[in-house]
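Possible regression after last week's pipeline update?

I re-ran a chain I had predicted before the update to compare outputs. Posting the input and the new output here so someone can diff against the archived version. Not blocking, just want to make sure nothing changed silently.
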Amino acid sequence: MEIIIDKFKPKVTRPFKRKNEFWVKLIDENEGEFIMKFKTPLEAEDAIYGLLDLQVYGGKVKLSVKEGNVIEKLEILELYKPSAKELVEEYFTD
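New output (post-update):
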C-alpha cells in the first residue's frame, strides 16, 4: 500500500535489535508510528543519517507500507527548508 504524507516530520529512534533484524521507528505526531527493518546495525545507522533533513525540516514523502506499518520504501518528494527567520521563530515558540 502506498501512502503520501504532506507534512511528515518524524522523530527517529536509535536502532534496536528485534529477532535477527535491526529496527528503527519513525514516530510522527499526526501519522503515528512506522518501522524500518535492516539486516545490520550499519545499514540502520546510515538510514538515520539519511533522514536527518527530514527530521529537522519535515517534508512530503511517499511510503510503501506493508502490514504492521513496516516501511518497504521511503521516497522524499519534497523537503521543506524554511528560512533562518522561520526556524528562529519556530524554536522560540515551541
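Follow-up from reviewer: compared with the archived run. The helical segments are 41-50, 52-57, 84-93. Marking as no regression found.
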